[in-house]
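Two proteins follow. First one:
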Amino acid sequence: MFGSIRRSGNLRFSLTRYALALLVTAIALVATLILRRDGPTPSFLFFVPAVAISAWYGGPGPAALATSLSLLLIDLNFLDPGGSLLIDRIEALEIIAFIIVAATITTTMEALHHALALAESRATALKQLNEEVGRSYDSEREKRHMAELLAQAREEVLGVVAHDLRNPLNTIITSTDLLLQERLEPARRTELLEVALRTGRQMNRLIGDLLDTVRMHAGKFTLDVEDVTVASIFRQAEETFRPIAEKRGIYLEAVPPENGVAVRADPFRVSQIVGNIVGNALKFTPERGNVTLRADANGNHVAIHVTDTGPGIPPNDIEHLFDDFWQARRNDHRGVGLGLAIAKGVVEAHGGMIWAESTPGHGSTFSFTLPRAIATRSA
């Protein structure tokens, strides 16, 4: 009996979410038709908020429904020829831009829900810790310290979502608004579309970093390990970062390791580790500087080192490098401070270690170890 009541309640909730998507889309259509009586009005003006509301209160399903229905209504009512599904090249670009914005909004809302869920779970843990405080002075002090860390982590998660996801979203919305101008030159329209697409990819990377952090804290981070040669890891890093290094006037060198040296690891996650570290090295290395990758095998492990000729890191900052949301330059907004924290979590998930050595004014070396593949160990 209770099971049927619960299923009935879930069905009603699901129908309500989709009904909301239909309602806000209909309101967007009516509002656009009313404003068009007084003069030209962008076709997508009210449909973007409709998708955002559907994504926030309903989730991906209702958001997809609102997006599809919006495109259909716009095509039938506002794109020439009226009442037809035929579209020209300019209209196709506008539709693509709307889809990018809708997908970005939906993904952002999902990431925000994940972050809020993480924050709420940590708030619950904080409440439980506070209830247990008082058994002894030492125990109370330790628990208070943990509670402060949990509260701080909650604020940091919400702050990252609010700041670092909102700004790219504003860029996409601004670009899309300009795309809706009827007399925009095709070259300018293409440029704005590329800006929206590039910013969408940036948001996707930020969301991926946030979700990886959530999985690590929740203990649900998994690996798909196989034998990966260090040479292939270095080759992929060179292919990815050499154009960036050349553009900035930095010499990137990957020193080939001993023939046949391989690690037992998840290839995607290893490329993520190397990418985060090399990306940081290039970001802080000045023009005509050097970034070098090298590796050495030692018993059951292989150590990979990334050395740069950047400004170096103050001793007091070394201990914080691998903390969540921490950045050496507080006014640097080129990242959210998760790259090295994720690299540390991935390395430790493989059973390795990661560390940094640096002298201010003389560059830095970031190193990490991975298990050596059995087939490549010396007899």
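Second one, unrelated to the first:
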Amino acid sequence: MIKGDTIQLIPATPEDRLTAYQWLCQSDTTPYHMGPPHFPNHPVLTWEEFCQDYTEYYFDGSEPAKGRCFVIISQDTPVGIISYSCFHLKQHKAELDIWMNSLQNCGQGRGPDAIRTLCSYLHETLGISDFIIRPSARNPRAVKAYEKAGFVKINQAKKEETLHEFLLDQYYSLYGPGDYGSGDDVVLIKSLQPAPR
């Protein structure tokens, strides 16, 4: 268990995979990041599509250098999922994603706490110093939450340069546009200084 200020992170297991999908794609938070009415060009993922994106290693811990999911716990109750991915990025970098299981668990500081906690953990255990997160511009609440977690929004003029700094060349064409397509994504980054030696 990884302890934050108000939450804990527990490594997800294969048994959590379906629950993670349901929270992302079948909850009252879903319309805020995919599917109609706000995201007609970003349809809700099918179970098969989710499993293609979140392969086994996110839930069994077999390839921590590539990525992992964690269950966010608040007051002994699961409230969401947070994940990191590194397989498509340059060394010492990670991309984060987070979703809560219901609207009632949003806006209470749990998301920013989970993000700060995961960043510190990855910095200490895997030496990751640079983090990126890319919500939709149509989700201002998410952008605000990430800024509370210490992320800084990159302006449009520097966005492409920043993405080239993070993404491996062979993955740029696939992942450069982000989930929402270039122009509808907001790029936010956070850097932690390497530990002194």
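SUMMARY FIELD: The mean pLDDT is 92. The CA atoms of residues 19 and 101 lie 9 Å apart.
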